[in-house]
Amino acid sequence: ARLGDPDRAISTLTKLLSIPYEAPLAANPPLTPALLRLDPMFDPLRKDPRFQKLIAASAQK
Question: What is the mean pLDDT of residues 36-51?
């Protein structure tokens, strides 16, 4: 998202959200709908309808 390639960012996030989380929490926190909504790293994507849809879909799982 920070590199100015929202298509790639959305595609990568979609893929990551489809993979079950199995790592230790301390090593790498899971990608969650809350993280997507709150982390400033995702600010460049906030107004993108695809990002909003991704958050809504992942929150329903």
Answer: 94
